[in-house]
């Protein structure tokens, strides 16, 4: 096998948080074959001279929604699934061109789009799916208007395709088993109110403890896990106490909730850029005044919750959670987090920490032998300048996923 040999550049060791010189890296097939601080001998390999640029792992975003193509989710009511899929394909390619070679969809993304990405029908990141997010009646995933009584068919509406409504333990067990049957890599449940939903208070507590426990038990039985949309400290404690593995958002947590997360080994997936983008641009795309008011509450608390978790030792992942037209702000999360985190830790959150969350340590998020050949060539040192991830990938001249170049402006 011939392979591709990267040489003549600098190497970002994300675990150590340092950039090293004199490292060669050999790719064979879709994996990294060898990494060495001495020249690698591979006579038949295609040689790529990095010219002093930095070689680093592809980025991972652990909270995206490829099918939520509108900022005001209610606007998806009249969108057919064919159009939804077409828009998702464009979103996924744009994510890949920003350097995100893996993403975790936390509600809506399905097996079909996953296969489309894996087989190259859609040029996009490697996709981990939750299937339909699970909500209680009146919860964060119940998008019916107050005048509606019935849930419209989920097979033909963009609004209802991304979530499902369940009540009670038997329904929860059935829903989790069904999403896993359909190919979900992880299960997403809603345990508190949210910004985008129009009927639930932000601090509402959703699902009973036995319903949450039923979800986590079924996921564990499958070798999977549950992630939970949660804002308030009480919602977080209820979820983590019943075995939820990752808390999505968590803006309104307190120290007691953080300590419990640390004790249970739970992850935090902050999505600070979502609130920043909705404040700046949400009204332009139809976000309601009700949602904008709730957005202000969580926006002001975001950095505080992240700082609390960091100081306590809770693993912090990288997520964005941007809706529709706001997706182009995906990499701005790096800059927002840099207000309370060193650049190396922010990069780790989008690489090795997210790989651990996805249960793919040693396969994703770092450049080590045996890992997938997901890598970026960056025109500068991102540990010193996180702005290199901005401008829609303009400072990333080469992007490889699973051993294939999707962008290569190196002239090699």
TrEMBL record:
It comes from the Bacteria. Pfam families: Amidohydro_1 (PF01979). Gene3D superfamilies: Metal-dependent hydrolases (3.20.20.140), Urease, subunit C, domain 1 (2.30.40.10). One of its GO terms (molecular function) is hydrolase activity, acting on carbon-nitrogen (but not peptide) bonds. Residues 54-390 form the Amidohydrolase-related domain. InterPro entries: Amidohydro-rel, Metal-dep_hydrolase_composite, Metal_Hydrolase, Metallo-dep_Hydrolase, OTAase-like. This is Peptidase M38. It comes from Aliidongia dinghuensis.
């Amino acid at each position: 096998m011939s392979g591709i040999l990267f040489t003549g550049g600098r190497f970002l060791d994300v675990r150590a948080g340092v950039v090293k010189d004199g490292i060669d890296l050999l790719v064979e097939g879709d994996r990294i074959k060898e990494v060495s601080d001495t020249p690698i001998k591979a006579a038949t390999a295609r040689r790529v001279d990095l010219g002093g640029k930095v070689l680093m792992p592809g980025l991972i975003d652990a909270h995206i929604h490829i099918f939520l193509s509108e900022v005001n989710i209610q606007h998806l009511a009249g969108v057919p699934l064919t159009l939804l899929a077409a828009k998702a394909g464009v979103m996924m390619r744009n994510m890949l061109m920003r350097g995100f070679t893996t993403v975790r969809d936390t509600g809506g993304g399905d097996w079909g789009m996953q296969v489309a990405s894996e087989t190259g029908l859609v040029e996009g990141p490697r996709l981990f799916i939750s299937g339909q997010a699970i909500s209680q009646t009146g919860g964060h995933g119940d998008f019916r208007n107050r005048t509606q009584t019935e849930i419209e068919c989920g097979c033909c509406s963009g609004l209802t395709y991304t979530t499902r409504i369940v009540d009670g333990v038997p329904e929860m067990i059935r829903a989790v088993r069904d999403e896993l049957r359909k190919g979900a890599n992880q299960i997403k449940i809603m345990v508190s109110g949210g910004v985008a939903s129009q009927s639930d208070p932000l601090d509402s507590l959703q699902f009973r403890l036995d319903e949450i426990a039923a979800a986590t038990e079924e996921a564990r039985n499958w070798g999977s896990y549950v992630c939970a949309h949660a804002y308030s400290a009480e919602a977080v404690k209820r979820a983590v106490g019943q075995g939820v593995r990752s808390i999505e958002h968590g803006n309104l947590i307190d120290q007691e909730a953080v300590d419990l997360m640390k004790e249970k080994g739970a992850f935090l997936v902050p999505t600070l850029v979502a609130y920043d983008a909705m404040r700046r641009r949400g009204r332009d795309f139809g976000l309601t005044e009700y949602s904008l008011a709730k957005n202000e509450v969580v926006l002001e608390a975001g950095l505080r919750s992240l700082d609390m978790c960091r100081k306590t030792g809770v693993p912090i992942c990288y997520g964005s959670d941007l809706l529709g037209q706001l997706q182009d702000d995906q990499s701005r999360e790096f800059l927002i987090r840099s207000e309370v985190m060193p650049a190396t830790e922010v990069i780790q959150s989008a690489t090795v920490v997210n790989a651990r969350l996805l249960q793919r340590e040693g396969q994703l998020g770092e450049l080590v032998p045996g890992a997938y050949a997901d890598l970026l060539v960056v025109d500068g040192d991102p540990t010193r300048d996180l702005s290199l991830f901005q401008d829609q990938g303009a400072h990333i001249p080469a992007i490889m996923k699973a051993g294939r170049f999707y962008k290569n402006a190196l002239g090699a």
